[in-house]
């Protein structure tokens, strides 16, 4: 039996496994890199072993270091988490050879699954529908086609090609990107991504757990999952589960995983792959089935039998969203920094099946967590479970909208808009949902009046904080002036550029008048501030209460609270209208050096992965110059115009910060 378990992963995944281990009496061992020394998963483990370094290759993916950590800590079992190691046959074999229990499928099965074409052939021989495979681009009979890497996971390296003229170049580019072979298969438009979670034991029993709808994706990676699927009826569910069982047995799979299918609008489906891990969306399955899938996974790893005779009954509906540190409006650019506040209201439980409908939060972060560039950008998974799909979507959207997520940019607003979208509510989703509905990329706080009120609240909260710290005249209301023409002003860098807010208070602490104006960045100097006429008065706004973190306003007879959290020079403002981050612009800014003309700077922190040009080389507009790797994704840097590479101060392997110089082009 498993006595002491090392989890070779971090964050939310490790915390999830530890939660079940505490329940069933298994001791736990965490591993951690240099940046993760104070991470929540480290504090929650019984034992923790330091892996010197910061990059994944030197720490969480270092097989030798992980095995040494397990042996040093006295672990007799290893759980690989849900990432790359969970699908690595060599790591699985090394654990088995070391005499420890491997929590996953046999190494031989993992070797088969790593070869995507061989996997498809075995499944096809078992009479499970699969899409045709073309390893030679010359044999592709029609378009569009999808280029896929022959090995690897997570949707990386996939590319749609719609005509023959670009196929050869796209295949060559994908081969360079993934560093290996690729194949093509027909691209099914408007298809759904459906997966069947399964549990299989060594005695041959295979139990499916219904299906999950995973069609709302970005970069071929899921961000919204639910069960049951609104497109699957009882008959189709039986067909999918039957095909999943056949595929599992054909591949000799044992453990917890998911069989993934593509489903078209006519109800036809095709096998995609068998993912041999406990996937990130397992929580929705736990909600509707009532089973702890981690406990079952550990039971099977110990050689036990699947403890149920068949598929469990589905209870209600569950939806999960992945809250990620990334900016959907800017090509999903990952974000790093300090998470100053992470608070989600009305959460009923964490990391384990809920006893009754409600909200569950599985998070790998807390207030003060530092989001680095080396790992996946997912911060947490928020799950709602309710009797119906409509109730689950409404509950989840409301909790997300009211959450306080301060310090890094996130995809929260997009997730709320997806959950509230008419097409999503109607169940009309497929893998092209985000492409068809660009309106979901708009921020929740988008109206002019809402932005103005947020600026006013930030200014009043800042004034209250300064007044509370003032050593003299503490009884006077902040912003009150003997001379009515004198207004208190502050300038914020908002979502649409600099905004100046001015306000006057009366002797009773009420708001006598206020105004807001957009400011041209070129006019941001001390002489121009506070000189604009009071042109936009709002007499129907009353300040009911104002302190450093909470402002209550009465707008035309409607009262509501605005929460303000200041971290450094940024005010994070949360109101019923939405959330916004406002950076206060200093009235006396320090001079900063100007970048050389035609400089290309790093859009995010990351490591330089590939450099494809040299100084003096002539490049075309749009040509790929180099790539940055951050949060498990590769980000290309292209030439904005034709020119000559004048300077190239970075080399492969170098780590750069946001705003750091990557290259200088002399334009033609």
UniProtKB/TrEMBL annotation:
Q: Which domain of life is it from?
A: Bacteria
| Segments forming domain ATP-grasp | 115-302
Protein's recorded name = ATP-grasp domain-containing protein
SMART domains per the UniProt record, alphabetical: Biotin_carb_C
What this protein needs as a cofactor is:
biotin
**Gene3D superfamilies, alphabetically?**
2.40.50.100, ATP-grasp fold, B domain
Q: Which residues form the Lipoyl-binding domain?
A: 585-666
Alphabetized, the UniProt keywords read:
ATP-binding, Biotin, Ligase, Nucleotide-binding
- Residue ranges the record marks as coiled coil: none
Species per Swiss-Prot/TrEMBL record:
Actinoplanes flavus
Keyword Magnesium recorded:
no
- Which InterPro entries does its entry note? ATP-grasp, BC-like_N, Biotin_BS, Biotin_carboxylase_complex, Biotin_carboxylation_dom, Biotin_COase_C, Biotin_lipoyl, CPAse_ATP-bd
Q: Which PANTHER family match?
A: BIOTIN CARBOXYLASE (PTHR18866:SF126), CARBOXYLASE:PYRUVATE/ACETYL-COA/PROPIONYL-COA CARBOXYLASE (PTHR18866)
Q: Which PROSITE patterns match?
A: ATP_GRASP, BC, BIOTIN, BIOTINYL_LIPOYL, CPSASE_1
What region holds the Biotin carboxylation domain?
1-439
């Amino acid at each position: 039996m498993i006595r002491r378990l090392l989890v070779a992963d971090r964050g939310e995944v490790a915390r999830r496994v530890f939660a079940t281990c505490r329940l069933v009496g298994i001791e736990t061992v965490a591993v951690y890199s240099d940046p993760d020394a104070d991470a929540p998963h480290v504090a929650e483990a019984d034992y923790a072993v330091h892996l010197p370094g910061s990059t994944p290759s030197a720490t969480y993916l270092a097989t030798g270091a992980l095995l040494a950590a397990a042996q040093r800590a006295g672990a007799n079992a290893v759980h690989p988490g849900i990432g790359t190691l969970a699908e690595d046959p060599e790591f699985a074999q090394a654990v088995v050879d070391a005499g420890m229990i491997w929590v996953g499928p046999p190494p031989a099965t993992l070797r088969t699954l790593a070869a995507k074409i061989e996997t498809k052939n075995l499944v096809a021989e078992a009479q499970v529908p699969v899409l045709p495979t073309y390893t030679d681009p010359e044999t592709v009979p029609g378009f569009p086609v999808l280029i896929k890497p022959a090995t690897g996971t997570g949707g990386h390296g996939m590319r749609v090609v719609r005509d023959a003229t670009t196929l050869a170049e796209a295949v060559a580019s994908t081969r360079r990107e993934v560093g290996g072979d690729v194949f093509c298969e027909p691209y099914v438009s408007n298809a759904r991504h459906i997966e069947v979670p399964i549990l299989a034991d060594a005695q041959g029993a295979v139990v499916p757990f219904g299906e999950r709808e995973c069609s709302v994706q970005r970069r071929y990676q899921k961000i919204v999952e639910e069960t049951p699927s609104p497109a699957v009826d009882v008959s189709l569910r039986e067909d999918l589960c039957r095909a999943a069982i056949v595929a599992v047995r054909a591949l000799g799979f044992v453990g917890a995983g998911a069989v993934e299918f593509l489903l078209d609008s006519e109800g036809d489906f095709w096998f995609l792959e068998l993912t041999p891990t406990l996937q990130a969306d397992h929580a929705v399955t736990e909600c509707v089935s009532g089973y702890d899938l981690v406990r079952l996974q550990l039971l099977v790893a110990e050689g036990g039998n699947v403890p149920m005779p068949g598929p469990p009954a589905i209870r209600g509906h569950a939806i999960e969203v992945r809250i990620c540190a990334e900016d959907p409006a800017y090509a999903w650019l990952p974000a790093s920094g300090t998470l100053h506040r992470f608070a989600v209201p009305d959460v009923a439980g964490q990391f384990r099946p809920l006893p009754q409908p409600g909200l569950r939060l599985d998070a790998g972060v807390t207030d003060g967590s530092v989001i680095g560039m080396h790992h996946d950008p997912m911060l947490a998974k928020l799950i709602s479970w309710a009797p119906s799909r409509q109730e689950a979507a409404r509950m989840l959207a409301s909790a997300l909208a009211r959450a306080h997520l301060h310090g890094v940019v996130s995809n929260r607003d997009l997730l709320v808009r997806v959950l509230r979208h008419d097409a999503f509510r109607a169940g009309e989703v497929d893998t092209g949902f985000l492409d068809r509905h660009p309106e979901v990329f708009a921020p929740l706080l988008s109206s002019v009046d809402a932005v103005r009120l947020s600026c006013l609240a930030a200014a009043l909260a800042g004034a209250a904080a300064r007044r509370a710290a003032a050593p003299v005249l503490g009884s006077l209301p902040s912003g009150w002036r003997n001379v009515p023409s004198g207004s208190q002003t502050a300038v914020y860098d908002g979502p649409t550029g600099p905004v100046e807010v001015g306000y006057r208070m009366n002797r009773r602490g009420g708001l006598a008048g206020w105004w807001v104006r957009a400011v041209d960045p070129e006019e941001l100097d001390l002489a121009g501030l506070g000189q604009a006429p009071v042109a936009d008065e709002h007499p129907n706004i009353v300040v009911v209460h104002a302190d450093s973190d909470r402002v209550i306003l009465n707008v035309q007879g409607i009262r509501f609270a605005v929460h303000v959290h200041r971290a450094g020079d940024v005010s994070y403002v949360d109101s019923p209208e939405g959330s916004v981050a406002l950076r206060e612009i200093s009235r006396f800014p320090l001079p900063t050096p100007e970048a050389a003309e035609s400089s290309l700077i790093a859009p995010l922190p990351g490591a330089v992965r590939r450099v494809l040009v040299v100084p003096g080389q002539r490049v075309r507009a749009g040509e790929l110059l180099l790539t940055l790797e951050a949060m498990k994704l590769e980000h290309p840097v292209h030439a904005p115009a034709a020119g000559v590479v004048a300077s190239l101060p970075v080399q492969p392997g170098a780590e750069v910060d946001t705003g750091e110089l990557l290259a200088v082009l002399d334009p033609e």
